[in-house]
# Entry
Amino acid sequence: MSLVDALTEPGTPDSGDTPISERGPAPLPIVVAFGFWLFLLSDIVLFSALFAAYAVLSGQTDGGPAGPQLFNRTNVLIETGCLLTSSFTCGLLTLSIEARNRLATYLWAAVTFALGVVFLAFELTEFGRMVAGGAGPTRSAFLSAFFTLVGTHGLHVTVGLAWLATMMAQVATLGFRPMVVRRLLCFSLFWHALDIVWIGVFTIVYLGAH
Amino acid sequence: MAAPDSSHDKAPGGGQRGSRGALMYATGFLFAIVLTLASFWAADTHSVWQPGVPVLLAALAIGQMGVHVVFFFHISTGPNDTNNFLALAFGIFVVGLVVFGSMLIMSNLNANMMPMDRLMEMQR
# Structure
């Protein structure tokens, strides 16, 4: 199968036949996923406010340490690799759920969870090192904005990990019920959205530091 | 899962399964790796005109976000994706307003602010 075939949706020739007024409500999985998509977009708007605060305050170091003295590019590359790979394994998790394959679901969930934990470990180590070196959130406006932005993303990852663990417990006890499957698909959307926010973080905060 | 229903929009993140789905995720992963490595290379390079580096970084980041939206969220501009795409477009609009609006207003205020020593004198 060629790549182009795989990437284009199969045609739906009869999609325009029924008027919108006669189609009735969309099935529950579609309504739930669309609602969660709206939540994710509003969550990204929340992050945009934190990004704006960081962009405005990033130069206000009050004589304290600036970005290049504090950040370690190698660490950031490893963190990015973890989160990116976990987003990919989360996609494979979605496919395992669609195929109702319990073993593959557990496997990809475990890999996703482990990569998320490694990411958080690197981030918390970095935070601990900065606070111990006198560059805590109270040092300057730049560091307040930094800890708020990156910390909020880390908090989201923590919540995502708790969610993933809960969902695996539900798969184990309840099986692939429609309710459980809907929640799992919402989780995968959440996890991909965190990766999109991280692209902004590593570009603006870490690579844009000067 | 129910059979694909062509009279409604599809769910974000849905619509791909089996080997087609795996190929989709793998393609996105590959693009994302290349764009990430390009970003880290661009941040340190001296082979690009230095004032152009932030623009290059922004272009690479926006490109990678696009890759995630297409290959991981499966958002397209197709006829059964209208609601998802319109919501996304509105989200991008609000994000742009908040980020660029804040930066514009704050840099303007900063440029027009009275010098701190003059301000101190007036408060005496």
